[in-house]
Amino acid sequence: MKTLVICSGGLDSVSLAHIIADQHELTRLVSFDYGQRHRKELDFAAAAAKRLNVPHHLMDMRGIGAALSGSALTDDIDVPDGHYAEDTMRVTVVPNRNAIMLTIGFGIAAANGDEAVATAVHGGDHFIYPDCRPEFTRAFDKMQKAALDGYANVQLYTPFVERSKADIVKEGAAHSTPFAETWSCYKGGEAHCGRCGTCVERREAFHLAGVADPTLYADPDYWLEAVAEGEKR
Questions:
Q1: Angle at the Cα of 46 (from 89 to 31), degrees rounded to 5?
Q2: What is the pLDDT of residues 189-198, one digit of tens each?
Q3: Is the pTM above the cut of 0.85?
Q4: 3-class secondary-structure state, position 190
């Protein structure tokens, strides 16, 4: 299956790219610059494409991102610390981001004869991001079949939509994903902060998966406190 992967440069999407490269036919990676403060992740996406020897399409969505205001990922709003599943993480929502990116991805796939667009949305995203939920991915796949009817047959591939980030770590490790060459932190500093929701989620996922975490964190132990606080709620 000729498959395009939507790749942010994060652990999930880079792992998916390596899995697709082993199990299917990886054709290209597509990334998006929407003005996110952690833009350095895009360098990791470019490195993944080079490592896997496929084209990297970097789409400039900064104009669109500027209009999708109100998110801590794009505006001058503090990124909250704490467990990923807390209500405070809702401030990291960029409205309709995945729907916009996937629409572009499907257009690129159709134009290049690809058979699938893969995205690494997973079960841990459901609480916060509506365009990561199974209801959305099923509806989006159906919509794209109508949009491309008679022109191309491209399916949406979401192997982790009902699974956990720990599952992604396990499978990524099985397919030799270089986890140190991925970026998750929402704050975009020199090292992963270890305190924002996605750092806590990343650190916890390695723990649950039983896989050594090679990531350098500014605060490597905060995740234990954050998870414990989250379990009390």
A1: 50
A2: 899 999 998 8
A3: yes
A4: coil
